[in-house]
Amino acid sequence: MRKWNIVGIAAVLAIATATFGASYAAEKLKVGFIYTGPIGDLGWSYQHDVGRKAMEKALGDKVETTYLENVPEGPDAERSIEQLARSGHKLIFTTSFGFMDPTLKVANKYPSVFFEHATGFKRAKNMSTYAARFYEGRYIQGQIAAKVSKTGVIGYIVSFPIPEVISNINATMLGAQSVNPNMKVKIIWVNSWFDPGKEADAAKALIDQGADVLTQHTDSPAAMQIAEQRGVHAFGESSDMIKFGPKAQLTADTDYWGDYYTKRAQAVLDGKWTSEDTWGGLDSGMVVMSPYTNMPDDVKKMAMDTQAAIKSGALHPFKCPITDQDGKTVECKGGTHLDAGQILSMNFYVKGIDDKIPGK
Amino acid sequence: MLLLEAIILSVIAASTPLLLAASGELVVERAGVLNLGLEGMMIMGAACGFAGAYMSDSILVGALSGVLAGAAMSAIFAFLTLGLAVNQVATGLALTILGTGLSGLIGAGFVGQKIVPAVQLHLPILTDLPIVGRIVFGEDAFVYFSIALIVGIWLFLYRSRPGLILRAVGDNHISAHALGYPVLKIRMLAVLFGGACAGLAGAFLPLAYTPFFIPGMTAGRGWIALALVVFASWRPGRLVAGAYLFGAVSILQLHAQALGLGVPSQLMSSLPYLATVIVLVLISRTRGTAGSAAPASLGMVFVPDR
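^ Those are the sequences you sent over. The predicted structure of the assembly is below.
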């Protein structure tokens, strides 16, 4: 494993290809990863890196992995992805929504390389998509929040108004409303996946305005730490943040990518890789709830029952009927619940959220 | 706690790193040197500050480590731009890139660790006063130091002879040199001072603001501090006002969102930069008259003839 920073990557790659590329490329499968944050973010990118290591461990010397961290989302990412493709990586995971179009572009240019893009919806012959159904965990969190909150206000720190983030807000509220129909949510957009200072400021602002359960769709444990300091509760995001909030964390919905990464790399090794759309949830082990802590036993039991029900398919967080915030009933394309397409392109708030989606 | 009091407390905390970093840069720029490496020096201060505090269990040691790290980074800058007369803009940008990478390396072993943050002052009676108590008498040492620092800088620049010389060096290094002042030495001291302040500003983040270290945690605050110096048109008084204004904007937009006022958060996030551009336009329109204290030799390379 070699670790490269984005700066100076061209030079390093050139040397690496010259020295190692020729001798090893034929024997090992080179797998590349593109992370949007630092792997030390203890959240999203960290969790993907845990998955990468799990894959390395499972497949041993059949694979060789490379990762690029701190790659900015958007057109700039194209260069980074292309660098990996050009330097002999046969399987490349791009792990953030904003890498979607750059990944597709590079995939079209390098038809013999396999690409896997997380959380997006554009696919090609050599480009799969994969995501975890985070909203399942969010629904459980919403229920817990409604039980433990005294003020009846959830504070929600979010990054960018993309469908995944919006569907997660909705799932949280649907869960909360299933326990207490009057639950409120206050939402703050920090316009960044990763800015600990701003996330902390947002957490303070939410607590100051009466929220006593915090949840976030950003990547650092800053909000958890503020919750701990202020004596309110919070949910960890992407990874278990109990260390930063031993008295504050109720649970965390963590992403576990290791099995998926191993499976996909094995498929390439066996020559059986095909373009797929994988959406794993609690049932597939892609979404794992951290231990339920800092809550009464009856709440814990409720959470576990809900978790089991979602896992077995008995309960769907987006079960119909669903009413949007303007009071309109949302079309029910999935029979008894919203279908995947509706959830993956969600662009409305459900009833009970008194806020507007930015830019809508 | 009243909402207003809570907001003011958050604003002060958010403004302090900006004020500390910008104070140092103000002195650097008044000496005629443009160091764009603020972000890199800050993040180094954050990494080394956390490392120092974690290993010693002392916030003071942490703060000093941050100061030293920032000063060390600026020494590289001083050597290149003053010693070898390399282009300041390019060197400053390189310093930021270097700092970002190096801090990640230094901090890698400390990610996921936590420390006890800097204690806040607590005076009997005074701190318990309603509203003003916490705000005036309940801050941490960084906040009080940042205020003392900018007052000291003001006294130095406008009420002392060395300060006058430093300004002369920044305004016309050729004349200052002709008068026999050691231009490069003065600039070197200013750059080191600026680095130390940036290091302290960076150390404030993991020691008091969010008590853990994560690579990249300065998240652009160095750039805002740079903009702030221009916004303040190189004057200490306006720098304080600007720092608290920038801090207030960033906190108030969060509260406005939580209240559901429908303020576009993207616009609010860009306000400090927009304000800086407007000030730059105003400065260029009033150049030659009162108002601007832009150092005339800012960013220019000086090679003394012997």
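Residues 142 and 172 of chain A are 4 Å apart (CA to CA). Chain A touches chain B at residues 5, 7, 37-38, 40-42, 70, 155, 186-192, 194-202, 204-206, 208-209, 211, 220-222, 225-226, 243-244, 354-356, 358-359 (CB under 8 Å).

Shout if you want it in another format.
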